[in-house]
Design brief:
The chain is of the alpha/beta class. It contains 9 helices and 6 strands; from the N terminus they run βαααααβαβαβαββα. It folds into 2 domains: 139 residues, 3-Layer(aba) Sandwich (Rossmann fold), CATH 3.40.50.1000; 67 residues, DNA polymerase, domain 1, CATH 1.10.150. The radius of gyration is 17 Å and the shape is globular. The two termini are 12 Å apart.
Length: 219
């Protein structure tokens, strides 16, 4: 019998489509500071911590601010973001995700969340999939943001699987790099020309076959 493997999922843009809400919340802050903030700019924030994201936006506007001002903006951003999540439900789960989760669960594989989000648990609860995850490691559990592999290393450790037996689903360059640095197998979800450093690439979860998952399990 093959030993259990670890399948680690990022949250935003991988399991649920909350990236749009982050964009709206950050744009509100940027607009208040008269900083141009487009969807292209938002790509720079993928997989990045909230603190670093604010620094990137302030750099775009060449704005310097005190820590007190930054703290206020960070609180405001999170409050605005959470307000968008109030009515969130299972319809926010991205196509194909449930098929993959159900397959892995049926095969008795370890399933973990490895996300920079500090709102991971409420999101998983609202979408009704919290019970699928054996382990949850989020922004409240780590000190270092991706591409540091800390979040994934902790997830693998808690799943009691080796890094080499861990497979990470990511939609950000920083996340793919973190998985690679952690000597795990990275699976890019999204544009392969952007996530070219990933070991495997899929446009979305509907493109992932049971045969591919079985191959990983039996690796």
């Amino acid at each position: 019998m093959k030993k259990k493997k670890g399948f680690i999922f990022d949250l935003d843009g991988v399991i649920v489509d909350t990236a749009k809400y982050h964009y709206l919340a950050w744009k509100k802050i940027a607009d208040s500071l008269h900083i141009e903030f487009t969807h292209d700019h938002n790509e720079l924030l993928k997989g990045v911590s909230r603190v670093r994201s604010l620094d990137i936006i302030l750099d775009l506007g060449k704005i310097e601010a005190s820590q007190e001002q930054k703290d206020q903006w960070l609180i405001q951003k999170n409050e605005d973001y959470l307000s968008y999540l109030v009515d969130m439900d299972e319809t926010e789960i991205l196509p194909g995700v449930m098929t993959v989760l159900n397959f892995l669960k049926a095969k008795g594989q370890g399933i973990a969340l490895g996300s920079a989000s500090k709102n991971a648990r409420p999101i998983l609860e609202k979408t009704g999939i919290l019970s699928y995850f054996d382990v949850i490691v989020d922004g409240n559990d780590v000190s270092n943001a991706k591409p540091d592999p800390e979040v994934f290393l902790i997830a693998a450790q808690k799943l009691a699987v080796a890094n080499s037996d861990s497979f990470v689903f990511e939609d950000s360059v920083a996340g793919v790099q973190a998985a690679n640095i952690g000597t795990m197998t990275s699976i890019g979800i999204g544009d392969a020309t952007v996530l070219y450093e990933a070991h495997h690439n899929f446009k979305d979860f509907t493109c992932i076959s049971e045969a591919f998952l079985s191959e990983l399990i039996n690796k």
